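Hi F.,

I've been meaning to write this up properly since the lab meeting, where we talked about keeping a consistent format for the predictions we share between groups. The idea is simple: the sequence comes first, exactly as it goes in, then the structure tokens exactly as they come out, then a line or two of notes. No screenshots and no reformatting. I'm using this chain as the first example so we have something concrete to point to.
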Amino acid sequence: MNEMSPLRPSETELWSPEKFEAEIRAVGVERYHDKHAFHKLLHGGKLNKGQVQAWALNRYCYQEAVPRKDAALISRTHDRALRREWVRRIHDHDGFGDEPGGLERWLILTDGLGLDRDYVVSRQGALPATRHIVESYVYFVREQPLVVAVASSLTELFAPSIHRERIAGMLENYDFIGDDVMAYFKRRLTQAPRDADFALGYVKENAATRAEQEACVGAVRFKCDVLWAQLDALHHAYVVPGLIPPGAFVPT
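Output, unedited:
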């Protein structure tokens, strides 16, 4: 009977901060959703208005889940400095004082696409897969070790490039998209790098074992899967084969 061979030191020793960051960034190179077929259709002007409406309506479910997952993370930590930094993310999405927030800017986008705001907010027309996918992200952040939960936000490292591409591509290719409705993406060009810098520093400082480092890389991979799966569902329902499930939004 063969015994399991022990792990070599190179498989258990802590990665250097540089190696750890490189492993995280490599996930984006391989798996970020800018490589998805639906993304390329969206930014390349290959979708009709109804398909763009379906994307914006379903993506609202994800946008609405983000401040809830951030609240779940804050509720778990006794680290006051982490709470003070992380609560800005909730303000960024929900708004604070005179700042309307990212969710309001997203609803300006759906307003501009001709979608009824109450219908969007209700999430009734979202794909069943979309709702389950985004809730899996909230659950992940609530249940995983804190440093791993923080790491799941690190897809923000890859976000500015996709936002720039989205702004340019959609403004150029769709006559029903105006500059004012792209405000959400323009604001994220500054918010996402700020958030990513903090989260990356936190993860590099607080992942204390090789196993924790690898779990953090796995969290980034999981988050990329969340974003990818949402586009899978959209592509299946609204492009090919075009099978919209009962109760979901039907373009008119």
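Notes:
The domain at 24-238 is CATH 1.20.910.10 (Heme Oxygenase; Chain A).
The chain has one domain: 24-238.

If this format works for you, I'll send the rest the same way.

G.
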